Amino acid sequence: MLFGAATSSYQIEGGWNEDGKSESIWDDITHMEPCIVLGCHNGDVAADSYHLYKRDVEMIRELGLDVYRFSLSWTRILPTGFPDRINEKGVEYYNNIINELLKYNIQPMITLFHWDLPRKLESLGGWSNSLIVDWFTDYSRIAFELFGDRVKYWITINEPREVCYSGYDYRYNMSGYPDYVCAKMILLAHAKTFHMYDKEYRPTQNGTIGITLSTPFYEPVSEEDAEAAEDVIQFEWGIYANPIFSKSGDFPQSVKEKIAVKSLSQGFPRSRLPAFTPEEIELVKGSSDFLGINHYTTSLVYRNESVNGYYASPSYYDDIGAMIYQDNSWEGSAISSLKVVPWGFYKLLTKIREDYDNPPIYITENGFPTQGGLEDDDRVAYYRKYLDSMLDVIEEGSDIKGYIAWSLMDNFEWNVGYTVKFGLFEVDFESPERTRTPRKAAYVYKEIVRTHTLDFNYEPDMNVAIGIDEGH
């Protein structure tokens, strides 16, 4: 069992226009006027990891971790978005991180795409342009060529659902059409990259490659709502998991049927969900060594006549046709939609084991947001409860290979900026040095990693420096 912590490029690096890096869509989004990010925050400097990577690795050593999951900035490596020009300074930066990690026996786990698409490619249609399958594969090839001799864990794409739904609904207020085109393109880009790695790089580099999905759990309010909850699951993440991990491949049957029926009734000549060809189904099916799971919370689902006309039409949520909410009695966090529901984690992992024939799983993100402060007992409690649920499914046979906490440090949390904190380490964003300080959760997580046990009574002495143990 590997333990790690995760970050992503735009959220921590800063150096947004330094040393030849070009603009990503998140540089574009955060520089819009009027601003659309809470507090008008941006990632121009963020945690300044572009300059402070050695401190980042030191923090990983202090925690005693096996793995560090981070992402590459496409525009830092390929400023045009294409392989015609490789930015040597960007390559040097990632080589420095990889080599610093390996010096201390920490394995890099690299995400190729964690949302920061080159702005130039977005202007050409981004994930709704079928050519992006080749653009992404070309970029991935460069990454394998440059770093694959030392990197044994690759993740193609982080959270396709957020890329596709949030990308088009949040930015362009379009839903129910471009998000489905995007879903197909992401799956094809992932699969083509997987097969390229498998045939051309795995024989010499001996790494593994998978995909990471955001996987909330959805619990029916009553037995009558079981079908509605299953529909939500299939739309939210089954649409990405089923084509890769099921025996039959392809989009889930219920998703195909619901979108087709709605599309025809709305006057579309064909389904708004673009179909896979038989060849594409085979290409995508089985195209992953493991499933990366990003999980935070659970919601409740019901379906009755109140759903009729509730959502805009056509739209993603109108296609699902269900009502989703959370119980107000559930323990909350600094993000209203992130409730503490550890039993949902157990049910999620059980469902994946049963539905997809127990695939190897890495928990690639799991974490808890606070408003700040070093005494984060609520975060400590969250980690313990969720790890406890994970232990239960491991005992029942789930093939969990690793657990990676979100996040190593406070970072730019997308549309809420720096107003919420996910870090095991606090970052002082007011300080030019972006000082990192371990929270209580860092001490507790370190002890979990060190002992590989869950001691609910362990209380760390935070007056003692967290320090680096032998071997790290």
Automatic annotation (TrEMBL):
Gene3D superfamilies in the record: Glycosidases
Signal peptide: none
GO biological process: carbohydrate metabolic process
Pfam families named in the record: Glyco_hydro_1
Matches recorded under InterPro entries: GH, Glyco_hydro_1
Gene Ontology MF: a single term: beta-glucosidase activity
Quaternary structure and interacting proteins, as annotated: Homodimer.
Name of the molecule in the record: Beta-glucosidase
Species, as recorded: Euphydryas editha (Edith's checkerspot)
